Every structure is written in C-alpha cells, then in structure tokens.
Amino acid sequence: MSDPTLYPVSPEWAERALMDKAGYGAARQQAQQGPDAFWAQAATRLDWITAPTVIKNVSFDRADFRIRWFEDGVLNVAWNCIDRHLPTRRDQTAILWEGDEPTDSRAITYGELHGQVCRMANVLKAQGVKKGDRVTLYLPMIPEAAYAMLACARIGAVHSVVFGGFSPDSLAGRIEDCASRIVITADEGLRGGKTIPLKANVDAALERVSGVETVLVIRRTGADVAMVAGRDVAYAEAAAGVSDDCPCEPMNAEDPLFILYTSGSTGKPKGVLHTTGGYLFWASWTHELVFDYRPGEVFWCTADVGWVTGHSYVVYGPLANAGTTLMFEGVPNYPTVSRFWEVVDKHKVEIFYTAPTALRALMREGDEPVKSTSRASLRLLGSVGEPINPEAWRWYHEVVGEGRLPIVDTWWQTETGGILVSPLPGATDLKPGSATLPLPGVELQLVDAEGQVLEGATSGNLVITDSWPGQMRTVYGDDQRFFDTYFSAYPGKYFTGDGCRRDEDGYYWITGRVDDVINVSGHRMGTAEVESALVLHDDVAEAAVVGFPHDIKGQGIYAYVTLNKGVEAHDDLKKALVAHVRKEIGPIAAPDAIHWAPGLPKTRSGKIMRRILRKIAENDLTSLGDTSTLADPGVVDDLVKTRAQH
Ligand code: 6R9
C-alpha cells in the first residue's frame, strides 16, 4: 500500500481556495511587518458601530502587562452573528439542529434565530439581567443553547457555559466563582437514548451555593421536574410574554463576552475570559480561512457548546460568517455507528470537524459503517482536541474522505479563542499527525526548560512570542493567576503547556501536555482535580493521578491510591472510588485504572515523583531513572511488582 508522508495541495484546492501558498506567505509577512495595518484591514470583516483606530496594545512584560485589541472599537456580537445577515439571508438556515433520535431535526432560519434570541434576551432583561452580569448556562445541545449565548451577547451579559456532563459540585463551583445570579438549564438532556437530569443537578448544585435568584428551565424532554416557587421559571411561559424584538447593546471591543472554565495543572478550574472584539474577530477569521468557508455552506463541528470548540466553531465563527451550522444533540454511536455519516448525507454536510477520539472509536468498528453511506457532499475534514495519530489520520483520509478530502488538523486551546496552528487547505501540504504551520500573525517558538530558544529541527516547549486578537484576557477575578500561569515560566512569552517537535520543513508536531494536565478524549482534566476528588473519599489517605496511553481516549486516567489504615483494598472499593469521582466531577473524570499503592514515591522534601508514576502507568519499567533520591526507594519496587495487576 502506498504510504506517502506528504499529501500535496491538489490543483483544484489551490484554484478554489481563499488563500493559496503565495497568499499565505504574503499574509504572514504583512502580519509580521505591519501588524496594525494587517489586523485593521482584516477586522473590517466585522460590522462595527464605531470602527477601531487603536488596533493592538500589548505587552507580555510583568511591569506593564496588558493585552488589548481594537480597544476603541464598539460593536455587538449578536448583531454580527444575526442582524447584519437579515437583509439578504433572512430565509437561509442558520442552525440545522439534529436531535438525538434520527427522526428529530429542525432548521432554524436567520429570521427565526433573530426572533428567538430577542425573546430570550427580553426574558433575561425581565429577570433583571444587566450588562456585565454573569449568566450560567447548563444546557444540552439544543438550539436554545445558542439562543442563550447570543441573547447574553445581545444585552451585554457575560455567559459561562458549563458542560452538561459536569456534576452538581463542579457546576456549583463555577456558579460561585463568577457569582452568577441566574442559571439557564433544561428539564433533562438526551444523549444516546439516555436522559441526563440537568434540572435536578442544578437543584443539587444550588444547595451548595447561594446567590442564584432565578433558574430558567427550558423544556426538552417534557419530564416532570420539581420547580421551586419564586426561583424557577418555565422558559416557555416567560418567553410568551415578551417581545421578539430587542435592541443590541453597543459593547466596547474589550468588554467581556464570556467566561469558560478550563482545567489547569494546579488548583480549581480557571475562568478563561474572552472579550467582544478580538474573540469574535478571531473565531470568524479563522473559521473562514482554515475551513475555506463560504456563506451558506453546511458546516458541522461535532463539539458540545460546553467546550471552547463549540463556542468558536458551532456558534460564533459560523454565524458571524453567515453560515449554516449543524448542531448535533447525540453521540457518534447511537442508534448505530454510522450515525455521523448518515447525518452528513441527510443534511448534505460540506465541512466536517471532529476529534481524534471519536475517529478512533469509529475506526474500531471497521470500514463498513462508513462505506454504507455516500458522503458525497463532503469537501473538507477537520480534527481538533488532541494529537491525531497517523493511523487515525489515514483512516479519516482514506475511508471517510475516500482519499479526496484534505484534513485540517487544528491546534489551539480554550485560552487562544480559536485556531492558531493548522494547514490551510489551499496552501499547505499535509503530513499525517502534524498540525503543520502557524496561521498568519501567530509567532511560535520552541524553548528548553531554561527558556533557551531552540532553532531548526528540534523538540521543546511551545511558546508564543506575541499576542493575537483571540487571546484570553485574564482569569476571571484573578489577574495574578493569569500572569503566573502563562507568562512567568518564560518571561515575555505565552507558555502553551504543550510539548512540540519541529521538523526539517518547519512543520510543528504537538506531542502533548508537559504540565499536569491530561487530555482524555479531547477534554482537559487537571490531575490535581481528580486527586482532590479521590481524597475526599473517607477511605482514601492519599492519591496521585497521571495520564497513560489509551487506545480510544488518547490518554486515560491512572490513579495511585493509598488507603487509610485498616481499610482493605478490594475491587468493590475500586468501583466505589470510580463512582465517587464521577459524582464529584463528572463522568469524564472517572479513572480508567486504580492502582493500590501502599506508599507513593516521594522526594525527601515530600514532593511526589510524578515522572516515575507516569513510567509505571505506561508500563515502561526499564527506564525509571535514578530513584536513589527518594525518601523510600522501596516504594517504587512495590509499585512495579503490582503493575501487572492493573
Ligand atoms: C481546542 C481545544 C487544549 C489542549 C492543547 C493540546 C490539545 C488541541 C490539538 C491538540 C494536538 C491538536 N490539542 N488541539 N494537540 N493537536 N490539533 O481542544 O481546547 O480543551 O483547551 O485543550 O488540547 O494539548 O493544549 P482545550
């Protein structure tokens, strides 16, 4: 079988693309040489109430740290995503909603979207929500999730979307951190034929946190849920009583648009704050460039709106670009493992964007469930969330794409707002497993642990030396944590937390996190969070969590657990601990393996030696390195001996 390492841009793509090789080179140069002129011109893609005259105002230095883009510009995100399209596209489908059941789907036009978003905005206003207030959204993948985000944007409220898979405790922590007085939820969610008790979870969360005055409850399944008098409001009833027109609040470019909590290497999840002008510009510009997107094309990003990918490429990017965005409530294997491809055929999807973990799971089911569908409408494939292994890349390319579709492997983070490193389908020759090259305006470097800049083909830590408009502005309520987390390791540079290799062609290959963040099925999890959850259990004395290679999830969660004296280790207790973590954080944090550890390898100063724990979890027992500095080297032998049982 031919196994090329380079997949050149096809002549058809070079011809049709918005940016070809020459255009890419020119844009990179312009962005480097005259950033203000470059970004000022690019930002005319948005509709401004007042066009910005100050474009970039940035310093990554501690003394005068600031990140501001388009700072005297005034605009409204909902206007840009809806109203400005109405004169020409009122009847075009804005959101194509595909429900959990294949029989359940709906097309929402831009005209309808306008009415729905205005109604929700008016309901929020009637509940006292004002510009700058934080609104927590805990919703399934239903059109109302997009309405709610856009309704907040319309009136200048700041949304915080919490993924519906998070537990009541996780939800409570996020509500508390940003002091939301209002939560929007649904009676239940529906995924893969199973219901998720969203409203009941909100009720449980609100027993742990005070300050929430209103819970708006959207009807999804029609389940009979408890309603607390004076606090809970049935959305349908509230919406019936308000107008379907609501003016857009003029917002400064640097006014907050949303908070999205993400896991870091230490402590509680951080509230990543994005602002109005820079974020919307970045979501819109990258969506057009990377997916070579033209208005009206059917674009399907399979991410949930509870993650940043759903924010930027289900809602804001496509809608800002007058797109038709497909929003999928379900899962890839329900009712059958052909579901993705059946949805592609049903809605004539042209661009399909998903995560490697989904591809690996589907790959295991063989080619037939793919080949039984047509997929003729597809013209471009995308990948996001974690490194895509070359084997999955080739399967995606050959089986899903029948060898005719380019794949854009897009590297970015919650913090970056949108894509930073990716091939452009008309400009970049592809290499399976490489996110290839930075977008124009994105300046990457590889550095070693001491911060020495590494040149040429090499490996190191990935840093970014200058700002881009979509960059996060702060950790909500904690500017110091923002600076310390991202700008203190390598002064003057943004540290991504990722390790990376650069090859002889200058292509970037992300190798994964170098901090204590693990990437489980494309979702970020802090090892410290899982450890905190484990030690909350009455039987647990101590816990250390590391990632290990997992065939489907990319990385799995491996937990070393030391039990309290007198507690007996047994399989039922393992199950109980897994259930406990699911309850504390949510199903995505459930450990895949629990290793009973009579002791943990620690330095004399008491620091857990994670490097050794990672090796043992990976079953790489030959190169444990020097263990002589450990307080008790015998601990390692014990763990090695018991590794086989896990
Ligand atoms: C968008 C998103 C960010 C982390 C990031 C990196 C990993 C994302 C990747 C990738 C290799 C890609 N990551 N895309 N690694 N290739 N194409 O996923 O945001 O949830 O914040 O995760 O995901 O490790 O640092 P987020």
From TrEMBL:
Enzyme Commission (EC) number: 6.2.1.1
InterPro entries given in the database record: Ac_CoA_lig, ACAS_N, AMP-bd_C, AMP-bd_C_sf, AMP-binding_CS, AMP-dep_synth/lig_dom, ANL_N_sf
Catalytic activity: acetate + ATP + CoA = acetyl-CoA + AMP + diphosphate
Listed cofactors: Mg(2+)
Post-translational modification: Acetylated. Deacetylation by the SIR2-homolog deacetylase activates the enzyme.
Leader sequence residues: none
GO MF assignments: acetate-CoA ligase activity
Residues in AMP-dependent synthetase/ligase domain copies: 86-466
Biological function: Catalyzes the conversion of acetate into acetyl-CoA (AcCoA), an essential intermediate at the junction of anabolic and catabolic pathways. AcsA undergoes a two-step reaction. In the first half reaction, AcsA combines acetate with ATP to form acetyl-adenylate (AcAMP) intermediate. In the second half reaction, it can then transfer the acetyl group from AcAMP to the sulfhydryl group of CoA, forming the product AcCoA.
Family from the record: Belongs to the ATP-dependent AMP-binding enzyme family.
Name assigned to this protein: Acetyl-coenzyme A synthetase
Encoding gene, per UniProt annotation: acs
